[in-house]
Amino acid sequence: MLSVGGSLRSGVLRIPVRGLCSAVNRKSPGPGPVCSGPPSAGLPAAWTRSGSRTSTGVRRFSGGGGPGAPGWYSRLSDSAPVHLCEDFLVGVQQVSGLPWWLSIAMATLSVRTVVTLPLAAYQLIILAKVEVLQEEISELAKRLRYEVSLRARERGWTEKQSRFQFQKNLRRIVSQLYIRDNCHPFKASLLVWVQLPLWISLSLALRNLSLDQCGKLTLDSGFLRGGTLWIPDLTVPDSTWILPVCLGLTNLLILEVFSLQRVNPSRFQRIVTNVIRGFSVLMVPIAATVPSSMALYWFISSLVGFSHNLLLRSPAIHKLLKLRTQRSDSPYRDLLSAIITKYCK
Fold first, then answer.
1. pTM of the model
2. In sequence order, what are the residues at sequence separation of 6 or more whose Cβ sits closer than 8 angstroms to the Cβ of residue 177?
């Protein structure tokens, strides 16, 4: 265990890293094309830019500030990442020859599996390392608190000064531990910083394709006839609300599965959970006003994310990732039991 030998310099407690954290350092690791052409001449007149709601029921966001001054939404819809996503979606459909609804599903599965699944596994590794460190941090905090109490009596520190010295040195020690094990918690947020921009870009790309704002599709491309079942036209909202409701239920299910992982959630965690619940419900009417292609993408993306979450709970995956935390040998049975206990009893 690490030594908590400390020294005082100029009345400020300094606990040398070499003395306190001798074990801490032992494992320190060393544009895409822009489409500005007018809409296809063969498209319905309601698809032209009007800055208002079209006859299809899809609201148009002009975000304009007058001629020659496009708003933030127009700039975002015309950005390079969005155009790259448009090319990707069109390329997948042309290569596969599948109907557009199935092509959207295949593209979503490919992106979530190739890009976000490895990042989710990396996030799991980082969080597991942080969890393993908690016991070591707890022991160091106890010894540091004792050392601070001794110095406080010698120097006559107030309670506020003692608390400041304890927190300052504890942060330094924890930072050294994160460096030693290469597991700073910020790295676990990498998934969000990649997944959110990707989700926005693909959503706007599908909206642009639905309205043919870049002229990449024609009536012969099959996009209008690329629907299925109750949504024969992917360019209009789902009037039955089946897709929006399924999207909301899936997002709520994912949230509840995550919340069951917390044994004793803090007040802040409960607030965040309730906020996300509200956002999941809010997504239902939003999905009912956008083209069905967007709502379909959101729904499939949520389904794939939920399946990936279940996959990463597998003991075989934990063994493959060499996680050092103690995990249940029957995670799916435990999850089902937790759901039944919380909602059915």
1. 0.71
2. 21, 24, 133, 136, 137
